[in-house]
Amino acid sequence: MTGYSVNLFYSYSHADELHREDMEKFLTIFRKEGVLKEWCDRKILAGQKISDVIHNELNNADIIVFLVSIDFLNSPACNEEWELANSLAKNNKKTLISIIVRDCPWLDFDNMRDYLALPTDGKFIMSWNDKDAAWKDVYSGIKNVVNSIRSTFDLKDDFKNKISILEFCSQSSESLLLNDLFVFPNLIKHSDSTEDEIILRNTTDILREKKTIILGDSQSGKTKLCSYIFLELNEKNVPVLLIDLMDIANKKPSIDIFQQCYSDQYKGDFKLWLNQNEKTVIFDNLSQFRNSLEHVILAESIFDNVVVTTSIEDYESYFKDDTRLLKFSFIVIRPFTHIKQEKLIKKWLQLKRKNITEYIEHGEIDQIENNINSIIIDNKILPRYPFFILSILQTYEAFMPQDLKITAYGHCYYALLLAHLIESGVENKDDPISKCFNYANHLAFEIHKKNPDSLFITQEDYKVFKIEHQKRFIISDSLINRLHGHFGIIKNINEIGYKFSLAYSYYYFLGQYLAKYYKENKSLVTNMIENSYKKHNSLLLIFTIHHAQDLEIIDEILLHTICTIDDIEPATLDKNETRIFRQLLSTIPKRLISEQPVNKVRDDERELRDKAEYQGGRETKEKENESSQDFLNQIYKCHKNIEILSQILKNKSGSLEKNKITEIVEIICDAGLRLAKILLSEDIKVEELIEYIQKQYMASDKFDASKSKQSQLDDIRRVVMARVFLWVMLNLEKTVSSINKPEINEIIEDIKNRRDTPAYEVIHYFYSLDTAKKFDEDNKELLKTLISKHDEKSMFFLHKILSIRTQHYRNTHEMKAPMEQAVCSLLKIDYKPKFDKRN
Question: Which of 230, 261, 224 is nearest to 245 (CA)?
């Protein structure tokens, strides 16, 4: 292990060269110990450009010494070196030392008096009776500075800047910094004693494990988490190294490797740095390549804390059974929760507005969330990782469609794929990009033909596909190799076969293929539409529509949605349909305004979204195993078709005529209202259902004979009514979220006026809340009109759900006190002033 040397630069007039030589003699001990390297202009070689060499040496110097005399003060070259050293010192923390060798007015020269001079008190060398004593005094001063520099472990600015830059699919040249947008990831560790999951909330929780391996998917944020931990520990003056194992995997493990990494990151002496306690090393990108793991094993004997990141796939393939990792704890990076996603959106908006304290309306955040969620689709297409969220934000904000060949959301997927290709080494030109996309299109279709449920192709089938493709199209092996290289969009699954690295890649390319060759594959697309409830079909249809150039596919989906459960009329939610809820709704308190802060209520709501998303994924898997329950399939198909039509509405409204948008909106609403109507039966049928359940209860092991039959019937009735009410409200909310696009407000209002049912009035009002940045006069007037139009006694259901939904909006969105007071008056509930954080 080589030693650390402090670099010293001499700035002097050649008239004082003897003084420089005297000083060099007194610094001989430092040179022999290897702790100091000196440079003066006498080391410039013949043929070198003097100004360039001096500038470079000044830039590399830790200490710049000025031998000050009247000749120095009068030398243009020395003055220039002084000015340059001053500018470098401001940015790079260089130490400037003036050595007063001869009597001169140095205190009046520029800002020289601001720096402590040597010998002590600036007593010039020539005035000392014993010159050796003078230079000994200089030696002591230099020694203190050298020791201070060696033991000051400052982070180098260029390294800090390098790891602080955020890289994602950006449409802008603007640099974004990690600290501006970082939200701590969703880290999960399984308990050693139970099956419970432990959430790790900060760096302290990670380091508490001492030896940790962090597992994550591609683009899950492993590298930026490493950078964040490193910068946080450095800010706290905790000794820490950050090492990318991809950079050193081919090198033989040794402490010299750590020293080289240290030298790239810090100033100061590595030997002294090693003497500190609680040293941490962070390894990014553990892989199977060469000596990657050996570096980690060596680090265990040197560092107190070892943090390692690797991909889940690499861990499962190469390290899962490696006994050398038995002492390590394992942490998994999960996709962001909805709470963390909202935090990231807030940071993004504040950064774009250049004002970290500016208030942002919750309604604006809701709209951005809606855009992101429409692309991520419950983690089924893209995982909710910060890379993808930021990419969507940047792409969606910057993208202005120049033509109608691709939707705005489709462009986002395209931009993400393009970023992958460029990162894998594909040249950013039309020809190679087009060849890659064409290859991926045909591969996706081949996978769909061979193995549509598992989304992969066997090794043997892939070889055949590649050969056949290269017979038909021009594409080189080197370009194909880039597609399934380390950063490519196609990956090898443990030598078994190939699949697309992320789900959205498969859906995007297959959708593009089906749209391009729609006529040849019309029966296949029709089959997908007829079975939209089955695995992958709804997602494939969404991506096919992203690329579709005509309305034929859309019209077919519209037709199938109209025909699904078409024996049931859409609910109107009039007094006859909703009277069964009278007793249930009478038990709900009139005032539901929460005393909790808005952000707390929003966090609670987003936690429920996470649970619903997780549960929805489980139910989907269970649903995929069903095959014979036709009516349930019809219900599920109706739900899926609503989702597909919602994507059409949100993605293609810019290219569709108003009458087509109107048709789509009306079909979505009717489908949602038909679903709501399923459980809205006549009173006599509801009572028959309650009687049936009671009989089943009597025959079960849980039957309690001590309860009277009427008591049993009352309990069952309450449960049934609650379930029916929940079903109706869920379908109303699903309908509204499916048409949640502010630009179509006029269309929705026209439909509401034309259909003129309480159900459509409710949908219009809910829509107005969901698309509002804040509750304004228009919302208030709409609420007032609905309340005054419908008699509360006969239309108690409508009044109740308007009140519930409005109060929920108030609980999750800040509302100015005068507006809240007016709303409470309309809803006939007590107004209680609440502290407004904005005032």
Answer: 261
Residue 66 in contact with residue 98, Cβ under 8 Å?
yes
Which is nearest to 102 in space by CA: 132, 121, 123, 79?
A: 123
Whether the Cβ atoms of residue 490 and residue 501 lie closer than 8 Å to each other: yes
For residue 622, name the pLDDT band (cuts at 50, 70, 90): very low
Is the bond into 119 cis (omega within 30 degrees of 0)?
A: yes
For residue 562, the one-letter residue type is I
Residue 387 C-alpha from the chain's centroid: 4
Name the nearest CA neighbour of 652 among 732, 569, 543, 570.
543
pLDDT digits (tens, 9 = 90+) for 374-419: 888 777 788 899 988 888 887 766 544 444 344 456 677 888 888 8
Q: How far apart are CA 317 and CA 642, in angstroms?
A: 40
Contact, 692 vs 665, CB < 8 A? no
Between 9 and 623, the higher pLDDT residue: 9
Q: Is 177 left (phi over 0), alpha (psi -120 to 50) or beta?
A: beta
- Whether residue 627 is predicted with pLDDT greater than 70 in this model: the reply is no
Q: Report H helices in 1-122.
A: 17-26, 28-33, 50-60, 70-73, 76-92
Tokens 């060696």 appear where? 150
In this prediction, residue 421 carries a pLDDT of 87
Alpha carbon distance 147, 62 (integer Å): 12
Work out the pLDDT band at 710, boundaries 50, 70, 90.
confident
How far apart are the two ends of the chain, measured CA to CA in Å? 61
Instruction: Name the strand (E) or helix (H) holding 7.
Output: strand 6-12
Radius of gyration of the CA atoms of the chain, in A? 35
The pLDDT score that the predictor gives to residue 615 is: 66
pLDDT value at residue 253: 94
Which has the closest alpha carbon to 762: 722, 795, 720?
A: 795
Alpha-carbon span 478 to 708, nearest angstrom: 79
83: exposed, middle or buried (C-beta count within 10 Å: 0-12, 13-18, 19+)? Answer: exposed
493 - beta bridge partners?
A: 497
CA distance 593 to 703: 39
Nearest by Cα to 505 from 432, 456, 461, 453: 456
Kindly state the tokens that stand for 293.
Answer: 């793991």
Residues 135/118, Cβ–Cβ less than 8 Å:
no
Give the residue from 489, 179, 612, 539 showing the smallest Cα distance to 356: 179
The DSSP H or E segment spanning 560 is helix 552-563
Structure tokens at 324: 């050398």
3-state SS assignment for residue 216: strand
What is residue 782's predicted lDDT score, i.e. its pLDDT?
A: 96
Q: Three-state secondary structure along 649-668? A: HHHHCCCCCHHHHHHHHHHH
How high is the mean pLDDT of the chain? 87
Residue 432: CB partners within 8 Å, gap ≥ 6? Answer: 426, 479
Q: Give the pLDDT confidence score for residue 686 in this predicted structure.
A: 63
Structure confidence by residue, pLDDT tens digits, 415-464: 888 888 888 889 989 899 999 999 999 999 999 998 887 788 999 999 99
